[in-house]
Design a protein that fits this description.
The complex is a heterodimer of chains A (648) and B (240). With 648 residues, chain A is an alpha/beta fold. Helix content of chain A is 36%, strand content 17%. Chain A folds into 3 domains: 168 residues, de novo design (two linked rop proteins) (Up-down Bundle); 165 residues, 3-Layer(bba) Sandwich (FAD/NAD(P)-binding domain), CATH 3.50.50; 144 residues, FAD/NAD(P)-binding domain. In chain A, the strands form 5 sheets. In chain A, strands 1, 2, 3, 4, 5, 6 and 22 form a 7-stranded antiparallel beta sheet that branches. In chain A, a hairpin with a 6-residue loop joins strand 1 and strand 2. The mean pLDDT of chain A is 93. Chain B has 2 domains: 108 residues, Ubiquitin-like (UB roll); 111 residues, no CATH class. In chain B, the strands form 3 sheets. Chain B has a 5-stranded mixed beta sheet, with helices on both faces. A 4-stranded antiparallel beta sheet of chain B has the order 8-9-10-11. In chain B, strands 6-7 form a two-stranded antiparallel sheet. In chain B, strand 1 and strand 2 form a beta hairpin. Classes of the chains: A alpha/beta (648), B alpha+beta (240). At the A-B interface, helix 2, helix 3 and helix 8 of A face strand 4, helix 2 and strand 6 of B.
Chain lengths: 648, 240
């Protein structure tokens, strides 16, 4: 960033004050746009430093405004952090009111350093860092205010609070807070908080990919906090205590909204819209609700009654379910409009398996998603012994582990890249191998072998990795002459899915991208038809459960704004995200000293009991383990405060 | 056992114990406030802060929560430590100037008067009551309300649940600052806690007629120990 007058980001000082703009030293460790729409950034203050772009900004007022917000996030459980920040805020308040005393600067430094050194967790320790930078490097501004005895001029600020785990979560769940609540044994409150941004706490407590854990800063010290297991603990407590979720009563809104597809995205949108008071009707072609969460996640990871707990909550909120109903056949979008629906959310998912690229005529080849669907709906799928699964994603792993449970004796995954590129979750891959699944890396089928119309094997070719492709992973290249044969009775391709949008007609005027997904504005889920919204796999291609939930949340927010205001507006937090959203929240110049503590893992079903059984593999944490695990959270909240000028 | 050094003195410490445990065994004094040997540590008061030296650099941490490990190097006395403890003491003294326990600590650490003021609050959020109620009484009637995003609370606090509380007075007993008080007036026990006043009906002894314990507490004990309800008809003094 070349325009900054001053930066202390990550402890690296760049001070261009008094220099000609041509001689400005660049801030090399921080890059963000200084303008977004009509908003211009004048200064930025956050956990790892202070950046001044416009010299007219009043640093004293900024430090006060920042600390006022930061202080609200201090949990209150440590004297140094909570009381220390309170006193610092009192002093800053006094200074900005023109009532500062000469010794106040020393006071601020003493308190700030004391908090930094002796706070119990990361939050307060890092929260005072930019305030100390302001006091240390803009001391004369503070002293000037004390001499002039004038109230400081106020700037306009926008703020956002996040954390590495919150940022990694597509639904931006307030992870540190729901963990804090578990730590304080307030399980019901924890779950109520989870439910603010997640319609599927029961499902996510078991089947979420937990991007949050991948970004947990505790990994730098020992291992990430078991966030998903903690969520599971909170939801299981609800079941064992017989508690009923409570929601705030809202005024009913007469406007009707149709949601197409009762999968995670559609249900999440319905949940949010129902909570806002709208009349929601959700359609699905299948006889049961749940979409991929119902038919695509095997029962050993997600028992059926768990999903129904979340769906029952949505039903109780008054959402009307119209199942066994095919859009385009039983009812068209146009008819929905004439029936009085003011907005539509399309969330039909992606369930057509991509084709292998080799000719398939034989019996014994079943697409991965169809296979899981058949198993989950109780269809007979096994009269064989050997199976190969093509692909390296979560569907492939789910198919392989399901096959083992069905009693297949020989289960092999064939994946064209190496272990490092496997998109399937690492723990799932490891569990599959522990259970007995074999994986042949760097190979792909080129021909299906058959006898009398029945599959007998697959001719495969070995691959090597070349240059990275568009996905960033190294492209597999076939090695000439390396063909080999794997004998098998069944082949399950699980190489990705695409949406089935055949229900849309030209008259619907909904634009579709070349990759077969619905074209939307990603930030608000609006399609080329303003009253039609879409999200989840049908708009993004196959993704995860939590991404679908996030899309449903986003769509609900947009639909509400569209119906209430006639337009979709950006929130303060969205604007901050657009300006400084690329800053890595995991960086921190120094940390408090903490001891290593073992991650508490839930008990698992012994491997020998898994064959032939769909019993749930993972158990729930005990209350003692949950409390211990919750204590491992470092509470890495990041408050970002921007001084802005709005040119509109 | 692991070997650690505290103030250059070699100390044998039990595996799984904390720096504070090890220092106590070795006869090295570290001031504490939110610590109680019968309860799990919380590390909230920050008074027991010590220096842990790793590769020549020192960092402060709370002795009550930090576990010992082989070769750990600890300092319990230094200018840096004293400064940190004094700051915490000043903060506590500003928050609750009328507590004997805090005045005693201030005296010990050489803090005369805090250099700033805070609105007096009796509860210093040490969580001793929360832990005692959970870990000793086994009732979990007190919970800590922490701050966070959109938590919609004015300030962090400890809250008693009247529904769960059995009126046993352990919280009042363990509270170091007098934020929780108990008083028996006639047939009623009154517990005054930061979250408000609570009243409990006291049981009358069939023999001497004295009101001797909250009925709710006796019901709790009877249930826990599987005793007949009439077990507590008489007070301990009038029992055979």
């Amino acid at each position: 960033m070349s325009k900054a007058i001053f930066s202390s980001w990550a402890g690296k000082i760049v001070d261009n004050r008094g220099l000609d703009t041509k001689k400005y030293k660049e801030v090399e460790n921080l890059e963000f746009p200084l303008q977004y729409n009509s908003y211009r950034v004048k200064a930025f203050m956050s956990w790892d430093g202070l950046v001044i772009i416009d010299e007219k900004i009043n640093v004293v007022d900024m430090a006060y405004s920042y600390l006022r917000e930061a202080q609200k996030l201090s949990c209150g459980e440590c004297t140094a952090g909570y009381l220390g920040m309170k006193v610092m805020l009192d002093i800053l308040d006094r200074i900005s009111n023109g009532e500062g005393k000469e010794e106040d600067v020393d006071f601020l430094q003493w308190l700030g350093n004391g908090i930094k050194e002796n706070a119990r967790c990361s939050f307060c320790a890092s929260a005072v860092t930019p305030v100390l930078d302001a006091v240390n490097y803009y001391k004369e501004e503070f002293l000037k205010t004390m001499v002039s005895k004038q109230t400081t001029p106020k700037s306009t600020y926008i703020t956002k609070v996040s954390a590495p785990c919150m940022e990694a979560c597509p639904a931006h769940q307030d992870v540190p807070c729901y963990i804090e609540l578990i730590k304080n044994y307030r399980y019901k409150d924890s779950l109520a908080l989870i439910r603010k941004t997640n319609a599927f706490p029961h499902v996510c407590g078991r089947a979420c990919v937990a991007f949050c854990e991948d970004s947990c800063r505790r990994a730098n010290l020992d291992s990430p906090v078991a966030i998903r297991a903690l969520k599971r603990f909170a939801v299981d407590y609800e079941v064992s205590s017989g508690a009923e979720p409570k929601f705030e009563k809202v005024k009913k809104n007469k406007q009707r909204i149709a949601v197409i597809g009762a999968g995670p995205a559609g249900l999440a949108a319905s949940y949010n819209l129902a909570l806002m008071g709208y009349q929601v009707t959700i359609y699905d072609k299948l006889p049961s609700a749940g979409g991929m969460a119902l038919v695509g996640i095997p029962q050993y990871r997600l028992p059926k009654d768990v999903l129904s707990r979340d769906i029952d909550v949505i039903k109780r909120l008054g959402v009307e379910f119209k199942l066994n109903t095919k859009i385009g056949k039983d009812v068209t979008l146009k008819e929905l409009s004439t029936q009085g629906f003011k907005a539509i959310f399309i969330a039909t998912g992606a369930q057509i398996g991509r084709e292998l690229g080799v000719e398939v005529k034989e019996e014994g080849v079943v697409d991965g998603v169809d296979f899981l669907h058949n198993v989950n709906t109780g269809k007979k799928v096994k009269d064989k012994d050997k199976v190969i699964i093509i692909g390296g994603g979560n569907v492939a792993i789910d198919c392989a582990r399901t096959c083992l449970r069905l009693g297949f004796k020989d289960v092999t995954i064939v994946y064209r890249r190496s272990r490092a590129e496997m998109p399937g979750r690492k723990e799932e891959v490891e569990a599959a191998e522990a259970e007995g699944v074999k994986i042949t890396f760097l190979a792909t089928p080129v021909k299906i072998l058959a006898k009398a119309g029945k599959v007998t094997g697959a001719e495969c070719i070995r691959m090597e990795l070349g240059e990275p492709d568009a996905s960033g992973r190294r492209r597999p290249i076939p090695i000439k002459g390396s063909e080999f044969t794997i004998e098998t009775d069944m082949i399950i391709p699980a190489i990705g899915e695409k949406p089935d949008l055949s229900f849309l007609t030209k008259d619907d005027k909904i634009e579709i991208r070349s990759d077969g997904t619905i074209k939307i504005e990603p930030s608000n889920c609006q399609t080329s038809q303003p009253w039609v919204f879409s999200g989840g796999d049908c708009a993004t291609g196959p993704a995860t459960l939590i991404e679908a939930i996030a899309a449903g949340n986003r769509a609900a927010k947009s639909i509400d704004q569209y119906l209430r205001l006639g337009k979709i507006v950006k929130s303060e937090s969205d604007i901050v995200a657009n300006l400084v959203g690329n800053i890595d929240l995991s960086e921190q110049r120094e940390d408090v000293l903490l001891a290593k503590r073992l991650r508490q893992s839930p008990e698992e079903l012994p491997i020998k009991e898994r064959q032939g059984s769909f019993s749930e593999v993972e158990k729930c944490l005990t209350p003692e383990a949950a409390a211990k695990e919750a204590e491992r959270c470092l509470r890495c909240y990041r408050l970002m405060l921007l001084a802005i000028a709005s040119e509109s | 056992m692991v070997t650690i050094t505290i103030n250059n003195q070699v100390v044998e410490a039990e595996e799984g114990s904390t720096i504070l445990d090890a220092a106590k065994t070795a006869g090295i004094y570290i001031p504490t406030l939110c610590y109680h040997e019968e309860l799990s540590p919380s590390g909230s008061c920050r008074l027991c802060t010590v220096e842990v030296i790793t590769n020549g650099t020192s960092q402060l941490t709370s002795a009550c929560t930090y576990p010992v490990e082989e070769g750990l190097e600890v300092r319990t006395r230094s200018e840096k430590i004293l400064k940190a403890r004094r700051l915490v003491t000043e903060l506590l003294l500003a928050q609750r100037p009328h507590s004997d326990r805090i005045q005693e600590l201030a005296k010990e650490l050489g803090v005369e008067k805090p250099s700033f003021t805070l609105k007096e609050k009796e509860c210093i959020l040490c969580e001793l009551c929360v832990r005692a109620c959970r870990e000793i009484v086994g009732v979990s009637a007190i919970s800590f309300i922490a701050q966070g995003i959109d938590q919609d609370i004015d300030e962090p606090s400890v809250v008693h649940s009247l529904e769960k509380c059995i009126g046993c007075d352990s919280c009042a007993y363990i509270c170091p600052t007098g934020a929780i008080m108990v008083e028996d007036v006639g047939d009623t026990r009154i517990i005054t806690a930061p979250s408000g006043k609570m009243e409990f009906k006291l049981k009358k002894c069939n023999t001497c007629g004295n009101y001797w314990a909250p009925e709710k507490q006796l019901e709790y004990i009877a249930k826990l120990a599987n005793l007949a309800p009439e077990t507590f008809d008489n007070c301990p003094n009038c029992r055979d």
